[in-house]
Amino acid sequence: MPETSEPHPEGEQPRSIRLTDPRALRAYAHPLRMTLVGLLRSSGPFTATKAAELTGESVASCSYHLRILAKYGLVEEAPGGKGREKPWRATARYTEWPEYSEDATVAEAADALTVAVAERYFERVTRAMERRHTLPREWREAEQFGDSLLYLTPEELTGLGERMDALLRPFEGRESDPSLMPEGARAVSILRIAHLEQDVPHHREAE
User: Fold this and answer.
1) What's the confidence (pLDDT) of residue 66?
2) Cα angle: 94, vertex 52, 122; to 5 degrees
3) Closest Cα to residue 26, out of 99, 93, 100, 107?
4) If we measure between CA atoms, which residue out of 87, 98, 77 comes closest to residue 3?
5) Looking at the Swiss-Prot or TrEMBL record, what is one Pfam family this protein matches (predicted)?
């Protein structure tokens, strides 16, 4: 079974949950389930009825998918309510899964989940680009869109990721503690994708 977080007191939430069970990995790859977990992390707790309003899906469908997510430890019942009116909450702020596994079944399910998440990322980026003309000037100028081609070793790339984590970590507490949020702060999605360019030569050719 996947690693699951212990029940947590109201207002407290583990940083991440790690999925290692192929069944959990495949279950989470469903677009609506990823949407529900994301909404619970940003706007929860809420009921299946509220989930239906937020997603445009039926209450029955949202209720079913929330139960599947609960089976694998990604969401849990929150205090209060009953039946379809019981609220749900996310069990952690982030989801993690193996980048590599000797188990072919785990590796296949993890890679499929990564592809599903990447597709979701770029759908969101496309929507953001389509709507950015409505943003105030300061947000349009602050947004970032670009790429870099670097020659790195695996160890250097790992270290770069750790340094990025360290830069972002101080801002994470604002979501759960609004008192830490300065005036004018809004939700910003920061994507971090670093992949090997297999079509680029290992070494630059001499000029």
Assistant:
1) 97
2) 45
3) 107
4) 98
5) HTH_20
In angstroms, rounded to a whole number, what is the distance separating the alpha carbons of residues 201 and 197? Answer: 9
- Alpha helices of 76-196 — where are they, by DSSP H? 104-131, 137-142, 154-168
For residue 72, what are its two tokens? 């694998």
In tens, the pLDDT along 39-78 reads 999 888 999 999 999 999 999 999 999 999 999 999 999 9
As given in the structure block, the two tokens for residue 5 are 């977080």
Question: What letter would DSSP give residue 46?
Answer: B
User: Percentage of residues in the chain with pLDDT exceeding 70?
Assistant: 90
Helix (H) or strand (E) holding 22, with range, is helix 22-28
Query: What is the pLDDT confidence band of residue 178, given thresholds at 50, 70 and 90?
Result: confident
Closest by Cα among 32, 202, 28, 194 to 99: 194
Q: How far apart are CA 50 and CA 87, in angstroms?
A: 9
Neighbours of 88 (CB within 10 A): 26
- Cut 0.85: pTM above it: no
Q: Which helix (H) or strand (E) holds 54?
A: helix 48-55
Per-residue model confidence (pLDDT) at position 13: 66
Token pair belonging to 76 = 């849990």
Closest CA to 163 of 194, 186, 187, 142: 194
- Whether the predicted pLDDT of 8 surpasses 50: no
